């Protein structure tokens, strides 16, 4: 990290560049620190206001989110940091300076170039050295999950961080999970018990009054709340802000157990103009292997050029997507299907209380989340026979 | 092991395309309709170009219809909406169920009904939904079973590189297909790499001679008259043409269309709208008195932000493989010039772009080894040099030497040559 810059330049009819000396202490104080062997990485994300103070520019408004870190290498080999591991299409420092050149004098632009160049995280960290700096990434609302990958001749290290951006309140942060169920209501189950409990659980969500049928509860997730959150973030799902309008149909809510969803996650592909997947989760009273069991309603939405997105009636296709998405992100421990007896054929699609059509073979997808990465070939498949006995 | 919820599912809708055609012909004859007439896959011609691979009891056959062929099959301009169908036939001769993972082919694949919804005409809405839905490949393949159908992916013209991943019980199959899709005239298809240098001109080098030869190559590109000093030649690549081609395509680089009228129009339109035309011809830069032998580009969010690289084959060979010299730069916007009216603004930090390339190839498992030599001219920030269109650039003056790999190389297995060491 180069020495902090302090300057005030104003020249020949151009805008002034106002940069304050960069003071890393506030970021360092709240940084999340991880160590592996001889290497320690501290990471923090400045919020929009801090970013404007540091860079003198409203970078968040341009879709740019700086991530700051410090890497200490007490090992014996030189390590290389690979920015593409953090963000495949990160912005280069002089690119962002160029994007912001308008209205500045030649001298001010040179200062801006220097500032962005010096603020960038270096690629190499030598033995005994500590480096720090920013990578300019694409803005991610909510909790940002990212990797810091380091490569040496003999070894490689990968750190995964989940950092909540100050000021963002996800919907699930407003839910009092501890008090949803009393100790008497909680049910601890084995796999056969879970099969039976799920076979008799409600097929679908409902409207607020509990009278009209919503879409099928087609997904079941077993895992600690934080692990489920991290797994979804790792698989590129994003949290929704509390109160954020979420569906193509407006702000309507679906209900299970007389309450609206505890959390909504959305998966948008690289091209946000295309369709997206939406997963609504409810904590259930069921537990397996001391982990909570979550019921989910998963839908895919089709984007249209001229109209609002509409739900894809193929809800089983959405299950297949989620399964692969978790599988490829290394967060799937095992999975199985729980067959139901309410198949809705393609030709006779049903309509839920929101007017959204669906057809399904009516099997629930049950996924166990893993906190540790699971390779593609190590994912287990659990097969239940009709008695509920399992075969792995 | 099942990827789909129910094996029964595969049989739920099977509308023979022939039946649909029959109905349409009837409607046509009765004067009710004339505008939607899909044809069976076997009649579309593109299966002649199918490639096949057999591995450990599984046979995979893959083919990619062109824009025109897709329009015939689906009776809809699906390329026009950014969708490219990939046809697969998977035969499972093992004793266990195998799941095909479309996510590995394109993590943002389109669902069949999503594709249908982009084209739905009210009169045929139900038939189209059913036709597209039944055209999708069912990913659950039972022992002894053969399945075929389409995956609806994002478009890659020129060559489409894609993975077909299959998961069985405790094992998996992975194969990367490289399939040329008709429709574009690609620059390097016409280059005669084998005949470029005579036997007398070709020089086989040892490691020390390779370093010296790379250092002695010109610092920079020139214009057509071999005058001027253009962009720094900051990359060298070691690999035969097919390896270079596989490595860059695998790492997501697009081939470049040769300049002709239609490509000029496509480029002009994307220039105006900022839209993504990924195969846009690139201007010629010169080394060895000739324009680049091959150019690749990697679009970012729009035409103004993309990475360009150009390669020239040298007469040098190292360990039997061709040695290439090249140049990489990143466009970061558009600016006006007196000479060419508009041109792309190049990121002055060409080393940053060079290092991006190392990591980009590495993360796509297309890099076997890399190292650095001197050869370009160092220019620190504040003392920038300028290319032929007056763009400034800064660099440490190093060239990265990249041994590309046609077969995947894991990140941990990449070798590093113990030559020059970049400072930061």
Per DSSP, the total helix count of chain A is 7
Percent in strands of chain A: 35-45%
Shape of chain B: globular
Largest interface: A-B, 59 and 60 residues
Number of strands of chain A: 27
- The oligomerization state is heterodimer
Structural class of chain B: alpha+beta
* Percentage of residues in strands of chain B: 25-35%
Structure report:
- The complex is a heterodimer of chains A (392) and B (424).
- Chain A has 392 residues and is of the alpha+beta class.
- Chain A folds into two domains: 158 residues, Sandwich (Immunoglobulin-like), CATH 2.60.40; 221 residues, no CATH class.
- In chain A, 17% of the residues lie in helices and 35% in strands.
- In chain A, the strands form seven sheets. In chain A, strands 11, 14, 15, 18, 19, 20, 21, 22, 25, 26 and 27 form an eleven-stranded mixed β-sheet that branches.
- In chain A, helix 3 runs antiparallel to helix 4.
- The N terminus of chain A is likely disordered.
- Chain B is α+β, with helices and mostly antiparallel strands.
- Chain B folds into two domains: 175 residues, no CATH class; 230 residues, no CATH class.
- Helix content of chain B is 21%, strand content 32%.
- In chain B, strands 9, 10, 11, 14, 15, 16, 17, 18, 21 and 22 form a ten-stranded mixed β-sheet that branches. A four-stranded antiparallel β-sheet of chain B has the order 1-2-3-6, with no helix packed on it.
- The longest helix of chain B is centred in the last third of the chain and has 14 residues.
- The radius of gyration of chain B is 25 Å and the shape is globular.
- The interface between A and B is large, with 59 and 60 residues.
């Amino acid at each position: 990290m180069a020495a902090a810059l302090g300057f005030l330049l104003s020249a020949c009819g151009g805008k002034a560049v106002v940069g304050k000396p960069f003071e890393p202490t506030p970021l360092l104080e709240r940084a999340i620190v991880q160590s592996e062997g001889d290497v320690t990485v501290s990471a923090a994300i400045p919020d929009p206001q801090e970013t404007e103070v540091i860079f003198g520019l409203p970078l968040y408004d341009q879709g740019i989110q700086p991530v700051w870190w410090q890497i200490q290498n007490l090992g014996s080999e030189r390590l290389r940091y690979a920015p593409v591991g953090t963000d495949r299409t990160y912005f280069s420092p002089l690119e962002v300076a160029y994007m912001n050149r308008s209205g500045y004098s030649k001298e001010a632009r040179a200062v801006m170039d220097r500032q962005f160049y010096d603020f960038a995280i270096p690629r190499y960290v030598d033995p005994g050295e500590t480096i720090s700096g920013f990578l300019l990434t694409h803005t991610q609302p909510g909790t940002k999950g990212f990797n810091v990958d380091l490569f040496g001749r003999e070894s490689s290290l990968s750190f995964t961080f989940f950092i909540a951006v100050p000021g963002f309140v996800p919907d699930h942060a407003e839910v009092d999970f501890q008090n949803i169920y009393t100790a008497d209501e909680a049910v601890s189950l084995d796999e056969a018990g879970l099969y039976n409990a799920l076979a008799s659980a409600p097929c679908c969500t409902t409207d607020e009054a509990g009278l009209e049928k919503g879409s099928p509860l087609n997904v079941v997730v077993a895992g600690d709340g934080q692990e489920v959150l991290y797994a979804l973030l790792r698989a590129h799902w994003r949290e929704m802000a509390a109160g954020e309008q979420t569906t193509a149909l407006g702000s309507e809510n679906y209900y299970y157990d007389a309450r609206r969803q505890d959390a909504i996650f959305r998966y948008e592909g690289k091209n946000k103009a295309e369709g997206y997947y939406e997963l609504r989760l409810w904590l259930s009273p069921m537990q397996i292997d001391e982990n909570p069991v979550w019921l989910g309603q998963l839908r895919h939405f089709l984007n249209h050029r001229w109209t609002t997105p509409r739900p894809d009636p193929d809800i089983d296709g959405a299950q297949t997507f989620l399964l692969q998405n978790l599988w490829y992100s290394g967060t799937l421990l095992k999975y199985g299907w729980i067959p139901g007896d309410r198949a809705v054929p393609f030709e006779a699609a049903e309509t839920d209380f929101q007017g959204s059509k669906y057809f399904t073979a009516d099997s629930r997808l049950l996924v166990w989340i893993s906190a540790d990465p699971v390779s593609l070939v190590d994912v287990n498949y659990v097969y239940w026979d009709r008695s509920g006995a399992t075969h792995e | 092991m099942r990827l789909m919820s129910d094996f029964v599912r595969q049989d739920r809708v099977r509308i023979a395309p022939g039946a649909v055609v029959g109905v349409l012909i009837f409607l046509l004859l009765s004067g009710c309709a004339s505008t939607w007439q899909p044809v069976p896959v076997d009649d579309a011609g593109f299966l002649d170009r199918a490639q096949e691979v057999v591995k450990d009891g599984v046979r995979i056959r893959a083919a990619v219809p062109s824009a025109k062929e897709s329009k015939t099959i689906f009776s809809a301009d699906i390329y026009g909406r950014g969708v490219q169908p990939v046809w697969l036939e998977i035969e499972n001769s093992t004793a266990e169920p195998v799941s095909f993972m479309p996510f590995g082919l394109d993590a943002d694949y389109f669902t069949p009904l999503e594709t249908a919804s982009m084209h739905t005409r009210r009169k045929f809405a139900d038939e189209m939904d059913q036709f597209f839905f039944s055209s999708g490949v069912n990913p659950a393949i039972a022992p002894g079973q053969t399945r075929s159908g389409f995956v609806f992916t994002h478009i890659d013209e020129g060559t489409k590189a894609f993975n077909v991943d299959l998961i069985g019980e405790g094992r998996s199959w992975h194969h990367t297909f490289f399939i040329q899709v008709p429709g574009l005239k690609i620059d390097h298809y016409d280059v005669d790499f084998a005949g470029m240098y005579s036997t007398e001109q070709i020089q086989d080098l040892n490691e020390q001679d390779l370093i010296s030869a790379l250092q002695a190559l010109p610092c920079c590109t020139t214009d057509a008259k071999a005058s001027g000093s253009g962009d720094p030649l900051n990359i060298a690549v070691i690999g035969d043409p097919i390896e270079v081609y596989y490595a860059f395509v695998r790492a997501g680089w697009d081939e470049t269309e040769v300049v002709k009228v239609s490509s000029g129009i496509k480029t002009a339109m994307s220039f105006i709208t900022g839209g993504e035309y990924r195969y846009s011809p690139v201007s010629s830069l010169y080394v060895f008195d000739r324009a680049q032998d091959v150019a690749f580009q990697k679009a970012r969010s729009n035409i103004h932000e993309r990475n360009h690289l150009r390669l020239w084959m040298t007469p040098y060979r190292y360990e039997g493989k061709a040695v290439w010299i090249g140049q990489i730069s990143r466009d970061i916007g558009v600016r006006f010039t007196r000479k060419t009216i508009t041109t792309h603004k190049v990121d002055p930090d060409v080393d940053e772009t060079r290092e991006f390339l190392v990591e980009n190839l590495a993360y796509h498992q297309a890099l076997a080894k890399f190292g650095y030599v001197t050869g370009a001219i160092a220019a620190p920030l504040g003392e920038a040099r300028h290319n032929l269109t007056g763009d400034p650039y800064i660099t440490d003056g190093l060239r990265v030497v990249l041994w590309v790999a046609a077969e995947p190389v894991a990140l941990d297995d990449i070798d590093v040559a113990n030559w020059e060491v970049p400072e930061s």
